[in-house]
Amino acid sequence: MATVLVVDDSPIDRRVVGGLLNKAPTLEVVYAADGEEALQVLRDSKPNLVVTDLIMPNMDGLELVAASVAEFPLVPVILMTGKGSEQIAVDALKAGASSYVPKSFLQDLLVDTVENLLAMAYEEQTQVRLLDCMVGCTFVIENDASMIPPMINYAKRFIRQSALCDETGGIRTCVALEEALNNALYHGNLELDSELRESDRPKYRALVEERRQADPYQSRRIYVTIRVAEDHGAFVISDEGPGFDPRTLPDPTDPANLERPSGHGLLLMRTFMDEVIYNDAGNQVTLIKRRNGSENPSH
Predict the structure, then answer these.
(1) Of 73, 79, 156, 164, which sits 20 to 30 A from 228 (CA to CA)?
(2) Are residues 23 and 57 in the same domain?
(3) What is the pLDDT of residues 85-135, one digit of tens each?
(4) CA-CA distances (angstroms) from residue 120 to 27, 98, 154, 192, 235?
(5) Whether the Cβ atoms of residue 194 and residue 188 lie closer than 8 Å to each other
(6) Separation between Cα atoms, residue 63 and residue 95, nearest integer Å
(7) Is the whole model's pTM more than 0.70, yes or no?
(8) What pLDDT shows up at residue 233?
C-alpha cells in the first residue's frame, strides 16, 4: 500500500482529489492544507508521493517542491495545474517536480500518473534502502576500459550513501580509485608500459586491443572489493597479472619524478587517500579513506 499526500488549501478540492485516488485499491491518502503542513506530514508520515496544488497561502506549490526536493529527493511531486498557474508550474517542474496533471483532466489522468510515478520511484527507493544495508561489495571486471566509468559512478554513489566523506573527499577518492583501476587493467593484466603510451600512443592503443584478444591476457580479470567500516572505507583492487616488487616504486613526491608518466597515478592515490598498501606480489592495492576525525583503522 502506497501513501499519497494531497496538498490543497481548498477542502472541497482535497476531497475530490482524495476520492479519485481512493478508487485505486493500492493507494492510501493523507492530506495537508498548504506547503508548511505538507512538509510536516512528509517528516511524520513519510508518504511515497505528493500531489499538490500550486497557488496556496503560507507556502505555495513552487516553494513546497523546492523544499521537498531538498529534504525528500526520492519522493515524487505531481502538480495540479489550473488556468493562471502555468508559469508557476513551469518553474516548479524546473525546480524538481516529477510531473503535472491539468485540473480539467484529473479524473482521466491523475490515478494513472500517480501509479506510473510510484512504480518508477519504487525501484530507486528500494535500491537506496538496499545500499543502506550494505557494508561492502565485490565486482569482477573484464579487461574493458568502458567498465571503469560505471564502476566509478557506483563507488561515488556508495561513498555518498555511506557518508564516508564530504563531496570533495568523495571526488578525490573516486579519482584515486580510477587510477588504481587503470593500473590494474593496463599495467597489471595487459602488462603495458607507461613509457610506450607517452612515446607512441597509436602503437600503445593497438597493443591494448591486441592483448585484450590474446592469451594469457584476455582471460584475466580485475577484482574490486569495497568495504565500509565505522571509522574508514577500504577499496581493494586486484589484478591477475604477474605483479611487481612494490619496493621498486619511485617516490612520486620527489620533484625529479613528477614528470615521469609512471608516477602520475601513484601520486594521486597517495595524495587523495590516507593509506595506499600493496601486497608483496604487487598485484593488489588497498586504498584506505578514513572518516573525518578517525585514527588509523583496523584492517
Answers:
(1) 73
(2) yes
(3) 778 888 889 899 999 999 999 999 999 999 989 988 887 667 666 666 666
(4) 15, 11, 20, 44, 31
(5) no
(6) 9
(7) no
(8) 93
pLDDT, one tens digit per residue, over 237-257 is 999 999 999 888 777 666 565
Among 95, 115, 132, the domain boundary falls at 132
Whether 51 contacts 7, CB under 8 Å: yes
Determine the residue type at 220: R
Range of the domain at 140: 134-290
280 phi, psi to nearest 5 deg: -65, -35
Assigned C-alpha cell, 24: 485505486
44, 87 in Cβ contact below 8 A? Answer: no
Query: Do 114 and 202 sit in the same domain of this protein?
Result: no
Percent of the chain exceeding pLDDT 90 equals 65
